[in-house]
Amino acid sequence: MLQAPWNAKIYRNRHGRGMRTPMFGTRLPRYRTRAGLFDDLVAAHLRRLAAAWPELIRPVQFMVEDVPPSDPAPWEEEPSLGSRCFPAGRGVPARIVLYRLPLQTHAHDREELEWAIRDELVLRLAELYGRRPEEIDPDFEW
């Protein structure tokens, strides 16, 4: 059955010579988005911390959101734009939320972003457990 050209599905490139393919392979670094790269960095730091402190990391939920909400929590004197810590209560486990866009905006390169993510995770874990950040990560410096 013939179809009108505007209803036909296009399976060839725009010159009509070959199949459409991705411009770069999925294993190449450019395939990752900035959000995906951020998630990978957070996961890498969590694996590193979980290897050292499994009893501290296991009961905590970690989340990544794009931007912080506009209203600070009632117990926060000065809200942090990089992350937030929510203690456990009423059957809800403790949570640490990292905010991707503020951290990416302040970092100039990937290495600086890695340090910012590490600092936020260590500071929030220390706040959650009432410890000094140096106890959680000996390499931590103010």
TrEMBL record:
<dbReference type="InterPro" id="IPR010428">
    <property type="entry name" value="Zincin_1"/>
</dbReference>
<dbReference type="InterPro" id="IPR038555">
    <property type="entry name" value="Zincin_1_sf"/>
</dbReference>
<dbReference type="Pfam" id="PF06262">
    <property type="entry name" value="Zincin_1"/>
</dbReference>
<protein>
    <submittedName>
        <fullName>Metallopeptidase family protein</fullName>
    </submittedName>
</protein>
